[in-house]
Fold this sequence. Notes:
With about 160 residues, the chain is mainly alpha-helical. Helices cover about 75% and strands about 0% of the residues.
Amino acid sequence: xxxxxxxxxxxxxxxxxxxxxxxxxxxxxxxxxxxxxxxxxxxxxxxxxxxxxxxxxxxxxxxxxxxxxxxxxxxxxxxxxxxxxxxxxxxxxxxxxxxxxxxxxxxxxxxxxxxxxxxxxxxxxxxxxxxxxxxxxxxxxxxxxxxxxxxxxxxxxxxxx
Length: 161
């Protein structure tokens, strides 16, 4: 997204306080909902002594760590380091690509498919998280799409192959 395009979006939110407040709430709390759903899946597996528990934990952990190392190695600038003024301030520099939030969403989505639990809810929350990250000005569209695909594709491969 170009700086001029983002500035139009930014001005919309700044002139519509209710939408701006909603964005801030969604930006802050949606990731916790995804984590809660993931933990709910793990707890269900523990309660039922399901053999898939270790795979559900270690696949997600492995992909999260791999994604963290990848983005640290790439160390891409964040949109607000390239001239935009973000709607939600963040001190972090670099490490924008791929989005770790969306890597997590992607792998949790693949886990939800593997376990056949919360599939649609995780997908919808993930889409909202990606939109919020872009609207907030902390990630580009490419950061969130590649982050999701990285987590999802690796997750599907590790869960089903």
